[in-house]
Amino acid sequence: MSTEPHNRSFLQRLKRFYFFKRAKIKERRSDWRGLAALAMSWAKTESYDGEAWYLLGVAYGQLGDHEREVAAYKRAVEVGPFAAGAWTNLGAAYWDLRRHEDAEMAYRKALQLTPHDTKAYSGLIHCLLAQEKKAEAAGVVEQLFQLGLRSNLGYPGPIVSVQVHGILQALDPELAQAYSTRLDAIISKLTS
User: Fold this and answer.
1) Which residue ranges of the chain lie beneath pLDDT 50?
2) Where does residue 30 fall: left (phi above 0), alpha (psi -120 to 50 degrees), or beta otherwise?
């Protein structure tokens, strides 16, 4: 009985760990060119590993090379379609290229996978407003409002509410005020 497949699996995990640890050091040091080179090497040897492509996307994004960033994140979601963070970052990369419809699609996919991702909500709202889809943006704001009220993340809804308020404040201070007023009214009813 051969143990070769077991050893190969162990060696693959060891190699992944080695690349990942080196990549995190480069990321912490903001060595984006070094991270790009390392992630590219990793992706060439382990093309099926979404983390390599994800980190390549991070590096290209930090270097301002949004075309390559998009390509890396697209590869990351091809090999790991359930990687919500890659979908969210793909949306942001598309946004940077002013490809709002593509960004909207990526953010929606991210939200299907992680319905609590406030970064994806924020990006989606920006995309919808850029495409003048105000009614859809209002619906997303309502989803954010509901998320703030009943967080399914294991931490209190008020923490999410603060994040939501920050997103809305950046988009439209009047909208943020309306959100706060509505939230205050609901909390007042619940506590009286």
Assistant:
1) 1-3, 152-156, 190
2) left
Token pair of 165 as six digits: 């308020």
User: Looking at the domain assignment, is residue 40 inside a domain?
Assistant: no
Query: Quick check: is 85 in a domain?
Result: no
Radius of gyration (C-alpha) of the chain in whole angstroms: 20
Q: Which amino acid is at 154?
A: G
Query: pTM surpassing 0.70?
Result: yes
Look at residue 136 and tell me if it is in a domain: yes
Q: Cα dist. 143→57, 132, 160 in Å?
A: 29, 19, 12
Domain membership of residue 160 as a residue range: 115-192
Distance CA 89, CA 86 (A): 5
CB under 8 A, 24+ apart: contacts of 95-100: 95/123, 95/126, 95/127, 96/61, 96/66, 96/69, 97/66, 97/67, 97/70, 100/127, 100/130, 100/131
